[in-house]
Amino acid sequence: MNRLFDWLDHRTGYRSLVHEALHENVPGGSRWRYIWGSALTFGIFVQFITGLFLWMAYSPSAGSAWESVYYIQNEMTAGWLLRGIHHSMAQLMTVLLVLHFMQVVIDGAYKAPREINFWFGLGLLGVVLALSLTGYLLPWDQKGYWATRVATNIAGVTPLIGPWVQRILIGGPDYGHHTLTRFFALHAGWLPGLLVVLIAGHIYLFRKHGLTAAEPRRKADEPFWPDQVLKDAVASLAVMAAVLVMIFWPRISGAGGPLGADLSAPADPSELYSAARPEWYFLFLFQLLKYFPGESEVWGAIVLPGVGISILLAMPFLGRWRLGHRFNIVFLATGLAGAAALTLLAWRADRLSPEFQVARRMADREAERMMVLAGSPLGIPPSGGASLLRQDPFIQGPKLFAKHCSSCHRWGGEDGQGGIPRDPASAADLKGFATREWLAGLLDPARVATSNYFGGTKLSDGKMSRFVRKEVSRFTPAQREELTGVLAAISAEAGLRGQAKADRRDAALIARGREVIRTDSMRCTECHAFRKADEDASAPELTGYGSREWLIALVGDPAHARFYGKRNDRMPRFAADQVLDAESIGLVVDWLRGDWYEPGEPHARASH
Amino acid sequence: MAACCAAVAATAAAAVPVAAGLGVLTDPVRRHVGGGGFLKVATLAALPEDGTPRKFPVVATRVDAWSRSPGVPVGAVYLRRVQGARVEALNVSCPHAGCSVDFDADRHQFRCPCHDSLFGIDGGITDRRSPSARPLDALEVQVREGGEVWVRFQNFRAGTAQKIPIA
Ligand code: FES
User: Fold this and answer.
1) What is the DSSP letter of A103?
2) Residues A430 and A548 in one domain
3) A69 located within any domain
4) Distance between CA A582 and CA A351 in Å, rounded?
5) DSSP label at B60?
6) Cβ of A33: how many Cβ atoms within 10 Å?
7) Is residue B158 domain-resident?
8) Same domain, residue pair A298 and A236
9) Residues of A in contact with B69 (CB under 8 A)
10) pTM of the model
11) What is the ipTM metric for this complex?
12) Which residue stretches of chain A have pLDDT < 50?
């Protein structure tokens, strides 16, 4: 064996290299406070490893970035773990770097002859921050997309060169494929390359000048190996353990939610994303912008940070003066305290803002839903994940309802999205429309004229309402039983998914109910048509009541003779007057009917 | 002499690939947005009579480098009836840094969820402390036959007091 090593050493001289690496003198012996450099190098090493493997599964284009990240996160073996490590390590590294930087400043380790190494270190800090800024966009989800818009627009206000810098960064007049290819090239090529150069320089210079020994020295000098190496290895292990704790935090804290790194809904420039926030360590800059009105923005966005960075760069020179070192420490402390205060202010503002909380909830809902849709057996179409969301009744239904219906109608007392509209309801509450319970309420003398049904409309005192209040209220027990059948029969016309089981079970009841309607013993067909053409019908048709086709036709043109005819109150003719296109009407109708894809179904219903 | 020649030769050799690379890098500066025509966004019937703004996606053919996707959302606008059949359109994108603004129906104003810029219902700046340097960007509107509302959709540079179209 030894002969083999001898042979190798003769050809390569590796022994002196190892010796050089491991036997560096540690003045005053190994100490825990010397671990930072190694812990950070370890962090960067982890980012390189995880990054390279992520790269093997990632596809940078507007039509495939989100999709490939989804696939890594949810389908590939240990994909969530790989993403989780890369993401959590990025966060932790930022913290470690800042701590390391503080240590360097406090120890005065920037003093001559170590100025250049100090600048290398600052450069490293900058590159790591740039890596996290570019990495934030790569999943091409709403979060990254909107945060990047803000970040690049801020780059755009830089005097003179701003607009060009911005355009070269985003790769065109608008955000798209080339924004991703450029950010990815920066994130995985240019910046890591620069990082390697800076680290090599940093370590070379560090070795050249030796450690800045912490005084007083407690022990005699020792070589790097083995005691300091052991401490460094333990520190690296601790870093890795911390990353794992971060990844599993949702389980450890019991908060629940997916493990790994989060992935919000796919980027969509037409979908408001009011929960847009940068990564937490940039929040202070984000908050800072709030205090610079109008064109003074450039002071908050460019000048102030620029001055701060210049002072950091000048620290080695400032440190030469008697008070300079003190100044540096005070400056750093103030800067960090200021950043911390701004971060807290930003958090507080968001916590106290009901709008932000709603936006956050909606964003979470969409993200969760996207996972369900993308995981359906139909999978993600070539047009990308965003189109799935655009065609999903579960997500679009409530939005459309809130926008176009909730000025009159309600859905469970709300506007469909959990808000309460300003004006009181003036048309029926449509939650559970056409279910047996809903119809039972309509046929309930105590409820028909309330705002949940006809209360707010001019039908409040119409024929139906009068019939329910005057006649149904006097029904005999036998008639009541008949009515139950009638309601079941009408409700069965809708063919609601949520009632499918009950409809099958009560086939006999439903058949009897149909008979009652047909024979007109309950006087339904005096006004309503049922199962046959009826020229004189003056109220909405009961054939197919509440079915998809029926509802689409009703929403499209409520003033059609088949529905309310001339007695239509204020309901817009959504299709006839081109208020909504056919797709949107279909989405609202599917949502009202509770008809959307649920996990575990054989096929997605999202696209009818 | 030899040193000088070596420097020239090396620089010349390296300049070729670097120049080609810079050409691609700066290509976006020479690219311009196409289109700029009017797009149909909504109909009058879809706009509340009381003048409440309503958000609509702007659907167009999106050209993104090598791909051309017809019928996809390229942005969004708030439309609002002014009197009778006159309509005003505002780009939803905040002139400060490009977040999309929300309409707050209770307070009758637009609010940006990012740095809290406030805008009146006509898009004007209502609070002097608003980070945005200019009002929301109004867009040209045409109300055509059958109550169709057409908008000339454009994006503008963020962070400037002047309204400079992104060309
Ligand atoms: S992006 Fe709207 S206030 Fe900053």
Assistant:
1) H
2) yes
3) yes
4) 39
5) E
6) 9
7) no
8) no
9) 383
10) 0.91
11) 0.93
12) 604, 606-608
